[in-house]
Amino acid sequence: MSSWNLADCLDTVAELRGTADALIQGSNRCTWSQLERRARNLAAWMLERGVSHQGKLAIYTYNHPAYMESVYSGFKAAMVPVNVNYRYREEELRYLLDNADAEVVVVHEDFAPMLARIQDKLPELRAALVVSERDEADLSDLAGAEGFERAAEDDR
């Protein structure tokens, strides 16, 4: 079997359909080329933090374009995306992230305070990307956190 993964398939779609819409949410649109670039930047951000091959990427956000960008970037970084139900309570969240050995969490700013409360009980967690609906998310309570948009837009 060859060494390709789903990111390679999505990269091919991005090459073929570059200017076509890939993600649409309300009036927000993202082309395939933009999606591939953002996923590449996010994957590089994760790899810079030393994530392991087949490490777990927890995605703890609403139905949002960042969800699909996270899945794509996880594939690019050879990580395994893990869906997190945003209705989980603290103990359920801790249990899931600990048992999944989550190394990175993409978290919506609404849920960042709960993640911060259990962060010290997650030995594998290296970093978090905070999805914000505002220009700047408050990252003060979450160690190793960076804004999702900043990481997605920072060409590496």
Describe the structure concisely for a colleague:
This protein is α/β, with parallel strands linked by helices and 156 residues long. The protein contains 6 helices and 7 strands; from the N terminus they run αββαβαβαβαββα. It is globular, with a radius of gyration of 15 Å.
Please give a structural write-up.
The chain is of the alpha/beta class and 156 residues long. It has a five-stranded parallel β-sheet, sandwiched between helices. Strands 1-2 form a two-stranded antiparallel ribbon. β1 and β2 form a beta hairpin. α1 runs antiparallel to α2 and α2 crosses α3. The radius of gyration is 15 Å and the shape is globular. The relative contact order is 0.15. The model has no long low-confidence stretch (mean pLDDT 94).
User: Beta-strand percentage?
Assistant: 15-25%
Tell me, what's the shape? Answer: globular
Tell me the radius of gyration: 15 Å
Could you estimate the helical fraction of the residues in percent? Answer: 40-55%
